[in-house]
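DATA SHEET
Item: assembly model
Revision: 1
Owner: S.N.
Input lines:
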Amino acid sequence: MTRESGEAMDERIHQIREGIAAGRFPAHVFNDQEIFDLEQERLFNKAWCFLAHETEIPEPGDYVTRYIGNNNLIVARDEHGGVHASLNMCRHRGNMMCKSEMGNASHFRCSYHGWVYKNSGELIGVPYMAEGYGGALKRKDWGLKKARVESYAGLVFGTFDEDAPSLEEYLGGFQFYLDLYLKQGLAGSEVHGPPDHWITETDWKIAAENFSGDGYHTPVAHQFGFNLGYFPSSGATHSQGWAASIPGKGHGIGLGHTPGMVPFSGFPDELADEMRQSFTPEQIEVFSNTRTAVGTVFPNLSFLMQPFSLVPGEPGVRFVTMRLYHPIGPGRSEMYSWCLVPKDASQEYKDAAYQAYTLAFAQAGTFEQDDLENWARVTRMAKSTMARDIEFPYMMGMDAVQDPEFPGPGHVVKPYVNDSNFRNLWLRWADYLTGEV
Amino acid sequence: MVMLSTVDRRVQEDIREVMYREALALDERRFRDWLGFLTDDITYDVPLRVVREDLAEWELSPNGRIFQDNRQTLEVRVRRLETDFAWAEQPPSRTRHYITNVLIDATENENEYEVNSSCFIYRSRGDSIDPNLLSVARKDLIRRTDDGYRLARRWAAIDQAVINAHNLSIFI
């Protein structure tokens, strides 16, 4: 990027930011090479990016390979239980160290010239060290490039930004809402298995926005669900609930509520009892009346909890899906989708929740199928030359005032059908893209 | 010496024909008819594939699934396709299931046959010039019933670990 075009780009981002505050957002950003490049440089290399759930790597030596931006990382648990994220690139000539998605290894040995690293990233073995390098090479200077790693309630995040605030500050109070997904019962949540991941011609931002609380699309995009009798709410009552967002942080969650719903419905009784112990009184007040909870941790980690039955009209179980929208090109993403289950639940409940999840979400899920179809079309149209002059309306709920009775943190407005979370999301995105963060 | 199947050649021919007719029902989008090929207790699984080292205990997740269906949930999927709101299939995918390398072996149950096959699925959507291509290993169980041969188990592992299809709103 030349200096001039860089300045023009900065000006464009400032204009976009002003537009968001006024309730408008441009179409073209959902499929734009320059925006993608800027996101890679200024957003994904600076934000706290989700790497793994701790239960994916429970034992010493366990590892998974994941990404921060376009950087492939080995995320491993060392012999003392600490979690490390190291760039999966040998410091000698750059070969990819680890070629599998998951496994267990105390060391990684490069298949090119044989440099050996501990799973913590420390260089410990160099062939022909004395004969080749004499005393010129110090092992401690040539470890794998490390990312900072911090975690919250089982979620491991990483960043390459030495100056980034702590993860706690980055989450900024959103933990209150994340607990619904992460602390299902006293022992917390665990992954049911490895994630499904697949490539889709969808810009990551479309999915991140949708999952930050798009209650508006559900009655239409998932109309078949209402048609078959799946939902405990009808299209008419569906909009009830709250949109909660953390101002200045970008995180947001939609909390759908069905009038008259049984508190914690869809959870087994013993799990509901545990949650009454593990949650704060404020969390209990919010969560016990939540039917659907769909939220995004800025920038691209999302969650959904929803009661669902295999056969329409039956009571159903709660499933939780956690998803990561990994950008691999403008308008192109690798979708990761996990199912989280309560550790303390019976195997029978975990299996039922997982089966409900596979029927509804991930690549073959009946609800996700329709989202992915719509999102691929949005992405395609966003590349039209005319889309460069088109803005979308984001003014829903502009004048909504804070719900004074809601006990949770952040900016909280009614109803669940609202653009409030999206404005907050895109304002934060613009903050990063200006280079000011 | 290669061990050949002990299953009667005529039976093998019949089962192979059922497999082809089942594939044709899918490709002609006769999903209600397709349900008729399945037993009431069918298990329908597409396991998750994970890129692992050669010595790893598994490459197909023991409990991770892309599809984990039974007769009831397959019925739901078909009912969904019969509504006017299954956007993922509007307009519908054009699929072709190419079934080859069909091997039919006897099991301990004289009415059931283990059927290994390779299945190549071509899927075209809308005006896209980029079809989805799925190479699949199937290990099915075919049961002889009073109503003819029925599919009692579909187990289908996709060879590609990261699948470049935006969704799987089709049957495997």
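QC remark: Chain A is about 30% helix and 25% strand.
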